[in-house]
Design a protein that fits this description.
With about 90 residues, the chain is an all-alpha fold. It contains three helices and no strands.
């Protein structure tokens, strides 16, 4: 039981770190940190959070990460889908 709780906590922490890196990616605009690094680290931590949350489904923090990740992916894909429609108009 303690292992699942610690895995849920680790999943939640990696979710927060991934969100911080994605926030830095969105707000800095390649000014002091390379955007490729922040985007790669953000998605790596988010995927790590999702994988860890699959192993800790019964923990409350593990379920938070399990439900937040698909929502973030849909929002992110919609954002780039809509922006590509506006940027690629003839």
């Amino acid at each position: 039981m303690q292992s699942k709780q610690s895995m849920g906590l680790l999943s939640f922490i990696s979710l927060i770190v991934g969100l911080i890196f994605l926030g830095v990616y969105i707000t800095t605009g390649n000014s002091f940190i390379d955007d490729n690094i922040t985007m790669l680290l953000g998605f790596t931590f988010l995927i790590l959070s999702f994988v860890l949350s699959l192993f800790s489904k019964k923990d409350k923090l593990g379920r938070v990460s399990l439900y937040v990740f698909p929502i973030l992916v849909v929002i992110y894909l919609l954002f780039f889908g809509v922006m590509s429609l506006f940027w690629n108009t003839p």
